[in-house]
């Protein structure tokens, strides 16, 4: 079964094989969200799983949220937790086939690391295509050695810089200081900005 298929991920949710699920939003992302003052910005959360960050943002007053996951199960879980979350903003779809945007901000959390590494260049191009000029891609990447064993698949700051710099300005790429204990020392917080001339 292909790692990036709906069946693969739906089965993991049905079987409870969701070791990546923290049961709440990542502290680095809530801290970043708390600095955002414009509650009307268009935010995409791709491969969001149970989308705890979307719940956090929604409860904080952000309205233009779009949540995508290839599996329907985690989106249903978000809807059960937050019944008032608009159904039309929950998209069960393959991220690479999604036609939407542009977005002012895309929040990344455990989606990139779940993809087969062969798709990473395509991920970068798709993110650039979905963002508005001067839009930002922000979130967390894992920083442990990339192997064929996964998901999750790791990587390094140097690899990420080389991968994203042809399309984005690297504003921040640093060790996360507020990771949950099991991930401490293994996460990089980043903010990449799409230059206006890129589009």
Give the strand order, joined by hyphens, for the main sheet: 3-2-1-4-5-7-6
What general form does the structure show? globular
Content-based structural category: alpha/beta
Order of helices and strands: HHEHEHEEHEHEE
Q: How many beta-strand runs? A: 7
In CATH, what is the homologous superfamily? Vaccinia Virus protein VP39
Radius of gyration: 16 Å
CATH A-level architecture:
3-Layer(aba) Sandwich
Count of spatially separate domains:
1
Largest sheet: 7 strands, mixed
Describe the structure.
This protein has 6 helices and 7 strands. The protein has helices at residues 6-15, 27-33, 52-59, 72-81, 120-130, 157-164; strands at 43-45, 65-69, 90-92, 103-109, 131-142, 169-175, 187-193. The protein has a 7-stranded mixed beta sheet, with helices on both faces. α4 (72-81) links the parallel β2 (65-69) and β3. The protein is globular and about 40 Å long. The N and C termini lie far apart (36 Å).
Provide tags for this entry.
single chain, 199 residues, Rossmann fold, SAM-dependent_MTases_sf, transferase, S-adenosyl-L-methionine, TPMT, Thiopurine S-methyltransferase
Compact overview of the structure:
GO terms for molecular function: S-adenosylmethionine-dependent methyltransferase activity. This is Thiopurine S-methyltransferase. The chain is of the alpha/beta class.
Please write out the topology.
Elements: H1 6-15, H2 27-33, E1 43-45, H3 52-59, E2 65-69, H4 72-81, E3 90-92, E4 103-109, H5 120-130, E5 131-142, H6 157-164, E6 169-175, E7 187-193
Parallel strand pairs: 1-2, 1-4, 2-3, 4-5
Antiparallel strand pairs: 5-7, 6-7
């Amino acid at each position: 079964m292909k790692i990036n298929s709906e069946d693969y991920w739906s089965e993991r949710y049905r079987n409870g094989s969701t070791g990546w699920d923290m049961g709440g939003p990542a502290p680095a992302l809530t801290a970043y969200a708390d600095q955002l003052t414009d509650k009307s910005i268009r935010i995409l959360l791709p491969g969001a799983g149970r989308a705890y960050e979307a719940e956090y943002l929604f409860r904080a007053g952000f309205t233009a949220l779009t949540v995508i996951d290839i599996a329907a199960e985690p989106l249903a879980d978000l809807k059960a937790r937050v019944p008032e979350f608009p159904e039309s903003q929950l998209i069960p779809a393959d991220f690479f086939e999604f036609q939407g945007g542009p977005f002012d901000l895309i929040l990344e959390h455990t989606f990139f690391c779940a993809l087969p590494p062969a798709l990473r260049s395509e991920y970068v191009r798709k993110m650039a295509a979905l963002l508005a000029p001067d839009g930002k891609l922000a979130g967390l990447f894992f920083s442990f050695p990339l192997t064929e064993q996964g998901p999750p698949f790791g990587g390094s700051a140097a690899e990420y810089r080389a991968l994203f710099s042809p399309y984005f300005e690297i504003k921040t790429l640093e060790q996360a200081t507020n990771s949950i204990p099991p991930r401490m020392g293994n996460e990089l917080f980043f903010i990449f900005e799409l230059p206006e001339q890129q589009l």
